[in-house]
Specification:
The chain is of the alpha/beta class. The chain is 42% helix and 15% strand. It holds the Pfam family HET.
């Protein structure tokens, strides 16, 4: 089978590629199709937010009848997100962008905020339920995800008001026996240590989203419920993790620092320890969601410029 070759998209327009993830049963090969479309065409799609994982561990998929290689973590995401009864339309950066074309990368990154904002929902893929203690952590995470979904459904159907229902749920968490409570905190700690929380692109992807779900293995929970749970469990969080939770779709986004000051300097200071494969992305990933540099004409992402020029442009913008 020949290797997939990208055709250049129209860089003078708002064109993007979307991915058809073909329906199939678990265990069947992953088969996908790409198609080009204007960003504002109105085609419903979901956008994936994930950590690429080890770039040395590649898995083969079929893309438009030809072979393509993706990282193992992305392969697991597609495997778990594939539906049995219908195709699923996704935007996935590693596949929808030709990563070997710097002009295209810059063109697509300039549209990232809109891509994630226009998505029906953003899927935060945290990986599969694995651990150094395989027999323990997966069952804890499964039970924890079930409990969060129970809470979500109760809040959604509550007839006594959100605040009263939240108070009842806080009581439920606090009244859990010691072993159960410890298990939930252990599961939460495991999820918050996943690599997704260490990557700088995660910030723009969830900050731009109108709606998002956290997915681990075969289970998911809406972010608007997920972000409430740490405080209910009285789980200790680092400032960085709290800042990440604050930008997710949900109540914290309206109540936290995000509702106030979010200029480029503030974002760079808050998220300076987050990682990116390309050092330029430490800046480019935050431009679109900043309050002062989101205008692409002011300081556009440009992968044809070396790192030194990107740093100089950023310094000039921040100073002047």
């Amino acid at each position: 089978m020949e290797t997939y070759q990208y055709e250049r998209i129209d860089l003078a327009s708002d064109a993007i590629r979307l991915l058809y993830l073909n329906r199939g049963y678990d265990g069947h090969p992953i088969e996908c199709r790409l198609f080009e479309t204007p960003l504002n065409e109105g085609i419903p799609y979901e956008a994936l937010s994930y950590d690429c994982g080890d770039s040395a561990k590649l898995v083969e998929i079929t893309l438009d009848g030809r072979k393509a290689h993706i990282t193992e973590n992305l392969f697991e995401a597609l495997r778990h997100l594939r539906l049995v009864n219908r195709d699923r339309i996704l935007w996935v950066d590693a596949i929808c962008i030709n990563q070997d074309d710097d002009k295209e990368r810059g063109h697509q990154v300039r549209q990232m905020r809109t891509i994630y904002r226009n998505a029906e929902q953003v899927i935060v893929w945290l990986g599969i339920s694995t651990s150094p203690i395989p027999s323990l952590i997966p069952s804890l995470i499964s039970s924890f995800m079930d409990k969060m979904n129970e809470m979500h459904e109760d809040l959604a159907s509550s007839s006594i008001g959100t605040e009263n229902s939240l108070a009842l749920w806080e009581n439920v968490w606090s009244k859990s026996n010691v072993c159960t409570l410890y298990g939930y905190r252990l599961a939460l700690e495991n999820l918050l240590k996943r690599d997704w929380f260490k990557r700088v692109w995660s910030i723009q992807e969830v900050a731009s989203a109108r709606r998002a779900v956290v997915v681990c293995g075969w289970q998911s929970v809406p972010t608007k419920t997920f972000v409430r749970v740490p405080s209910m469990l009285k789980a200790p969080l680092t400032k960085l993790i709290q800042d990440v939770l604050d930008v997710m779709p949900g109540p914290l986004r309206r109540e936290s620092w995000w509702a106030g000051q979010r200029d480029l300097h503030t974002l760079m200071v808050k998220f300076e320890s987050l990682e990116a494969a390309d050092p330029r992305d430490q800046i480019f990933a935050l431009l679109g969601i900043s309050s002062d540099a989101c205008d692409n004409s002011t300081f556009p992402p440009n992968y044809e410029k070396p790192l030194s020029e990107t740093l100089r442009d950023a310094a000039r913008f921040l100073i002047f």
